[in-house]
């Protein structure tokens, strides 16, 4: 699978032992792929990458990081900042267009849904090791007409949400009701409800749980 037939040294990271076992099993099918280190949280991963030479990182998107206060995009950005040329494949169970674009903007090279790992992880590895980007079938529509110029910087992408929509999402994710948000921001309940709905529509989010995940991932909590 390596473009030169050499051994590819791989670091894998996931906080679920069963997923880690599955990754190892898939990689063992190729003699040219060797797992040289494993991490179960963001802190371990950063320490490993600083000390263990590797050719590829395969990591879960949502892992404990910074004492559990953050994960996802902040961790990916840190890895990319510290290791600008390291190929990164992300495994995730999240199917959210905004998060998909955020991961791409953070500089990852491959994205595979965990449900399609058996079918697509090896395809992703082959593509990434040959210098190409791989997005799994289930998420390709998320990045149609997208380019890195839409990179997220900070709490939320200003091209995606307005400042007022960000305020509503932040407060709602903190547990305030629409009525309480309206009182705090001195807006009508109808206006706040509309801004919440507009934000969800722009982000491709269909549930309050996904809205909370977006707020947590983008540092709005």
Kindly state the mean pLDDT as a whole number? 83
Query: What is the tally of helical segments?
Result: 9
Shape type: elongated
Show unreliable segments.
148-159
Question: Which terms would index this structure?
Answer:
221 residues, 9 helices, 13% strand
Present the secondary structure layout.
Blueprint (H helix, E strand, L loop, with lengths): L7 E6 L3 H11 L5 E7 L2 H10 L4 E5 L12 H10 L5 E5 L4 H9 L4 E4 L3 H13 L4 E2 L27 H11 L4 H8 L3 H15 L4 H10 L4
Parallel strand pairs: 1-2, 1-3, 3-4, 4-5, 5-6
Helix pairs in contact: 1-5, 2-3, 6-8, 6-9, 7-8
Describe the structure in your own words.
The chain is of the alpha/beta class. The chain has helices at residues 17-27, 42-51, 73-82, 97-105, 117-129, 163-173, 178-185, 189-203, 208-217, and strands spanning 8-13, 33-39, 56-60, 88-92, 110-113, 134-135.
